[in-house]
Specification:
Layout lengths: L4 H6 L1 H4 L7 H22 L8 H5 L1 H9 L5 E5 L1 E2 L10 E8 L2 E9 L23 E8 L4 E7 L5 E7 L4 E4 L4 E7 L2 E9 L9 E8 L6 E4 L23 E2 L3 H4 L16
Antiparallel strand pairs: 1-3, 2-12, 3-4, 4-10, 5-6, 5-11, 6-7, 7-8, 9-10, 11-12, 11-13
Length: 268
């Protein structure tokens, strides 16, 4: 079964489906419609195996989100902080609904450089950014309140709550996190409690770091554009202006309301 592109994008197929007389047939046609829309979006963005920023801004994808909220969002960190392509399989980060929070899954190459932190797995470790780590930041751009999450393949983690650029007021908060190293790869799964998120999250960025000395490598999901790099500039993961749009409702559903948190009470 095929539909013309103008029919797909107008939504007339979906609008013509009536669930009143036969819900099973209606759901079947809605599912087919979503699949066709997704295929059309893939045609427009063939290089976007994952849900890239360009993919998510396509009007066809916006229509898919309205009728079928995402169960997860997956991202690949494909560039260094200064917009050069990475020279290895990219680190992947997946966000999905969790019990009482947002589930964050990480997978990718294990570089084993630097050596493991001295702290026990499953515990917070200060200064974790000096080791091999994957980080995600969740920002309310109106207030510059944001959550920073750091996950290490050796099992250590670090949570920071910040109000203002680089201004942490809470850190080393507890979190459920498990990591597994298998050969030259690793996987990790964390549950980020809703109480750690600032209200009105609307931006996000993710990063990966590995290597030592001159081989220290800093990677970014949304890097600084190459044209904006100045001589002598160093990587800085707190450049909030380069974060891009992100809505928790895209994962949890449009009707979902973020729980209030005492941790952020009194902040702007």
């Amino acid at each position: 079964m095929f539909f013309r592109n103008d029919v797909l994008e107008s939504g007339s197929v979906f609008n013509s489906v009536s669930l009143g007389t036969n819900k099973r047939i209606g759901v079947k046609y809605i599912y087919i419609y979503i699949v066709l829309l997704t295929f059309r979006c893939r045609q427009r963005h063939p290089s976007s195996f994952l849900i890239s920023p360009e993919f998510r801004t396509d009007p066809v994808w916006s229509h898919i989100q309205r009728i079928s909220p995402l169960a997860q969002m997956e991202f690949a960190i494909q560039h260094t902080w200064d917009s050069n392509p990475v020279n290895h399989e990219p680190i992947r980060v997946v966000f999905s609904p969790g019990q009482g929070g947002l589930k964050m899954e990480v997978s990718g190459p294990f570089f084993n450089d630097p050596a493991a932190p001295a702290g026990p797995p499953g515990q917070a470790f200060p200064g974790l950014w000096d080791y091999e780590v994957v980080e995600s930041f969740f920002l309310d751009s109106a207030t510059e309140n944001y959550l920073e999450v750091e996950l290490c393949p050796h099992g250590q983690h670090l949570i920071l709550l910040l109000s203002g650029v680089g201004q942490a007021f809470q850190q080393q908060l507890p979190m459920v996190f498990d990591a597994t190293i298998t050969g030259d790869r690793w996987m990790g799964e964390a549950l980020l409690p809703w109480s750690y998120f600032p209200p009105n999250v609307n931006k996000m960025n993710s990063y990966a770091i590995h290597g030592s000395g001159e081989k220290r490598t800093y990677e970014a999901l949304y890097p600084i554009p190459r044209a904006e790099i100045v001589e002598g500039q160093k990587p800085n993961f707190h450049r909030l202006e380069y974060f891009q749009n992100f809505r928790l409702q895209s994962i949890m559903g449009e009707g979902w309301i973020q729980p209030e948190s005492d941790l952020w009470r009194g902040k702007p």
